[in-house]
């Protein structure tokens, strides 16, 4: 009871308009879940629900930062300072935000609704009946960091916070390039396949004079990506990935495509026209992203992938031969040794 009273005191100190939604079950929702946060856009009424920061640690007035849903194009969650976009959590992939690959967790029950009436994302945490005094909290602090915590016994324990590292900042790289923080030498913005540097941050189409409209063009896959800004993307949830590729290929203005929902092996179709902005790569998570290239670039990547595959096969063959050698030599040695001993007898 004492820890629960401490929680109530903490709530009164951190009071916001959304305090009931943050700390207690939402009316009409499953009582086995406690809501972490809910951000939404109601297209019928124009009502937006979002998180805002305090002015300071001691001033609960509305601060400069807000975490909200951007419903244009394919909806995505974004962090703003005033009207300046700082960070995209990205679009919902069916499993997580595209810009938060580490988000997948057994802690959450996530509900995402996107239709003609509303776009809503709600995180809930399952209330363990053996420990009913565990409460979740979600907030934007006065420095512009989105934080999620659990009240355990007598204190808040943070389990996730947003990142504003170099590649997470909005437009850390310019149009038609993506941010790669894992370069062994130094950080750099890399051009998408078929593009060349215009500056240290921006890229433009390579000037090869080859048409990309019904002229043998195709797509190069980039794995483990945070998808480009989806506020300018088009979505069709009825299409499979094969149909999505065909749709993009038929439209000569289509620059790239990706799956809108990866939770069921890839359903729904996202397509982009015009410049691609605010993409990045991850070491082992993220989504597959398919960029349109002309026939020359397509052949170059096919050859490159073929050589890579050949090297991989040779490496596997070399390892297999080495293992066989290590296994066979002792057997042969034992056989020869026994044979010599037999002759001596």
TrEMBL record:
Domain Apple intervals: 213-294
Keywords assigned: Disulfide bond, Membrane, Signal, Transmembrane, Transmembrane helix
Entry keyword Metal-binding: no
Reactions performed catalytically: L-threonyl-[protein] + ATP = O-phospho-L-threonyl-[protein] + ADP + H(+); L-seryl-[protein] + ATP = O-phospho-L-seryl-[protein] + ADP + H(+)
Pfam families: PAN_2, S_locus_glycop, Syntaxin
Enzyme Commission number(s) of this protein: 2.7.11.1
Signal peptide: none
Any one cellular-component term (Gene Ontology): membrane
Xref: CDD domains: PAN_AP_plant
InterPro entries: EGF, Pan_app, S_locus_glycoprot_dom, Syntaxin_N
Domain of life of the source: Eukaryota
BP GO terms, sorted: recognition of pollen
Record GO terms (molecular function): protein serine/threonine kinase activity
Transmembrane segments: 313-336
Keyword Membrane in record: yes
Entry protein name: non-specific serine/threonine protein kinase
Organism, as annotated: Castanea mollissima (Chinese chestnut)
């Amino acid at each position: 009871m004492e820890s629960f009273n401490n929680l109530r005191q903490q709530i009164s100190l951190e009071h916001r308009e959304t305090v009931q939604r943050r700390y207690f079950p939402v009316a009409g929702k499953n009582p086995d879940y406690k809501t972490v946060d809910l951000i939404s856009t109601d297209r019928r009424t124009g009502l937006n629900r979002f998180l805002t920061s305090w002015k300071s640690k001691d001033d609960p007035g509305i601060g400069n930062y807000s975490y909200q849903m951007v419903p244009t194009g394919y909806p995505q969650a974004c962090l703003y300072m005033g009207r300046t976009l700082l960070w995209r959590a990205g679009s919902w992939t069916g499993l997580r935000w595209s810009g938060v690959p580490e988000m997948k967790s057994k802690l959450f029950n996530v509900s995402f609704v996107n239709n003609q009436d509303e776009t809503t994302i709600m995180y809930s945490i399952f209330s363990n009946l053996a420990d009913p005094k565990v409460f979740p909290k979600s907030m934007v602090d006065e420095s512009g960091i989105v934080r999620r915590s659990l009240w355990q016994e007598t204190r808040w324990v943070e389990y996730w916070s947003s990142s504003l590292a170099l590649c997470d900042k909005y437009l850390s790289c310019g149009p038609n390039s993506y941010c790669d923080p894992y370069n062994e030498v130094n950080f750099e913005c890399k051009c998408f396949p078929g593009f060349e540097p215009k500056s240290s941050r921006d890229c433009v189409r390579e000037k090869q004079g080859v048409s990309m409209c019904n002229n043998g063009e195709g797509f190069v896959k980039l794995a483990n990506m945070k998808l480009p800004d989806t506020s300018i993307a088009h979505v069709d949830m009825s299409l499979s990935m094969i149909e999505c590729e065909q749709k993009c290929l038929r439209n000569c203005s289509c620059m790239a495509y990706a799956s809108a929902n990866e939770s069921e092996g890839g359903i729904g179709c996202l397509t982009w026209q015009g410049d691609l902005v605010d993409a990045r790569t991850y070491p082992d998570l993220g989504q597959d992203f398919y960029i349109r290239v002309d026939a020359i670039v397509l052949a170059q990547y096919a050859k490159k992938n073929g050589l890579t595959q050949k090297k991989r096969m040779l490496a596997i063959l070399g390892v297999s031969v080495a293992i066989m050698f290590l296994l066979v030599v002792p057997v042969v040695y034992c056989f020869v040794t026994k044979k010599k001993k037999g002759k001596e007898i």
